[in-house]
Amino acid sequence: MAAPRVGIVGGGVIGCAVAFELAERGASVTVFDGRSVAGGATQASAGILAPYIEAHEGGQLFDLTVRGLAEYDEFVSRVRAVTDLAFEYRRSGTIEIADTEDRSQALRARVSAPWAAAAGLRWVDPRELREIVPFVNARCAGALLCGAHGYVSVSTFTEAMADAAARLGARIHLHTAVSGIDVESGTIRLRGAPESPAFERVVICAGAWTPAVDPLGGTAGRIRPVRGQLVRLHTTTLVIQQILWSDRCYIVPWTDGTLLVGATSEDAGFDERPTAEGVRSLLAAAEAVVPALSSATFVDVRVGLRPATDDGLPMVGPASDPRILYATGHFRNGVLLAPLTARLIADCIF
After folding, report:
1. Is pLDDT of 121 > 80?
2. Delimiting residues of CATH 3.50.50.60 domain(s) in the chain
3. Among the four 18, 51, 90, 304, which has the fewest Cβ within 10 Å?
4. Per residue in 275-291, pLDDT tens?
């Protein structure tokens, strides 16, 4: 059987995960992106892998994200076996802070959930919380610790997946924007990509821009951009091991002292500007959890447009014409669902 010729529109975390998975299975893969690898929404992601916080318990999204987390260890090992590009991947756990008694009761209730043991859930009282995170606000009423959670450094992870895919034969064309997809003939060609060969399948991983290039109109009106701003801080004095999460923000600590604080959720259309209001709200939320962050070094702010769907579920699989496949609409869960999405798309092609 000849290797299927697959074009991928989008070089973010989803597109590069799909490219790696397909290339590893023997497909002839070509990726196109109008920016650099991870240049869109991916570069503004904190890379949190936390299904027991992010998704609604018992629903389809919850089930998907739990499956997504279960894929990560093995997927990361496969990527690292092919590339020598380094990236952080830690299952360091999350600490979900309760700053009020009502919040404390809501978090405590999760300990009795049927999945609590598998998630490594444990309630910690204020005294133990301050032993784990000495810098936490003294007014905190305790916290829920989830040992299964973690994070991945998204930009370097995406670059590693792209490199691994390239080592397996994939071709990566950056700063090459696709303006449309022609599906009339027996094969498919991409407009705006001068080096585009004829493809048997095309996977659209263009995030919020998917409807603009979708030749079938299946995503029209179903995907919208939601702006997310993420602040990067740096500190050499505060040692935080776990991801901290409040009802206003999350704080992701990297091993080099970098802290990622995110994220806003704004209906701002395709406006990718960082705003003073967004930065102020994130800094205030972070300092409410760890007051000493007021003295941390401000590094920068990053902005990404997340692709949201009306039902909150991603669009993954064949379109009305099975030669076109969607891998989009992941909203806040693109990083968490990238390995699972890649496998599901590859299963449709092979």
Report:
1. yes
2. 5-87+153-222+310-349
3. 90
4. 999 999 999 999 999 99
